[in-house]
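Quick start: read one record
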Amino acid sequence: MPRLSIVIVTYNSKAYIGGCLDSLRRHPPASDHDTLVVDNASSDGTAAYVRVEWPSVRVTEAGGNLGFAKANNLGIRQTSGELVLLLNPDTVVVAGSLDQLTAALDARPDAAIAGPRLIDPEGHAELSCGAMMSPWAELRQKILVRGHARRIPFISAYVERLTRRAREVDWVSGACLLVRRADAEAAGLLDERFVVYTEDVDFCASVRAKGRTVLFVPQAEVVHARGRSAASARQATARAYRLSQLAFYEKHHPHWVPWLRLYLKLRGRLPDR
């Protein structure tokens, strides 16, 4: 039985899943591990490509586009490792990063989840951890993300400093998230009402509600070509994002839901359920 199970959910990911799997081959974790790809009914031949080019990787076809949370839950249930790594197909693992995440959990029995410092292909940091999602936290995140993307000097400098500091956080990005299986199961796995986006924040909140801790581990770095999966279906992704956002507020901040719906309606972004 492997200690670590790596679960990768794909959707039309043929163009870049090879880079992810190749990085795992070149920089494998020291722990015994297995890798499972859960394919969400890709139309570009992703599942067949992985089976042919990466015969050591198991592939499960979901039978439809289940969304990120439900497909990851399927992968978790079909693996057995004590630790589970949720990994996006548009990531590239840097040497030693997975071992550093594992070591961080081993050193902290109170910790259930660890996430790395995510960087883009040019080496710029992604703001991949933070405080519990709320209207003010979302506004702050949006200002920092957009300012950093535009390379506004004082914002970029702040983001770089922030993502160099190891600490306990409310959430880490689901693009690369290491979790103890026992804690994932105690939290009920990922909430399947979230098709895409906010599922990682909610999952971390569920784990923290059990008295457990989430760690940001910047000495572990993973390259993330953010948004590649979303680019294949922008309109559907935008709608799924808004539905997930509404579901998150209904669950965690119900008093804000009427104001959020009004804001989205005025902006022409309120999704038809």
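The first strand starts at residue 4 and ends at 10.
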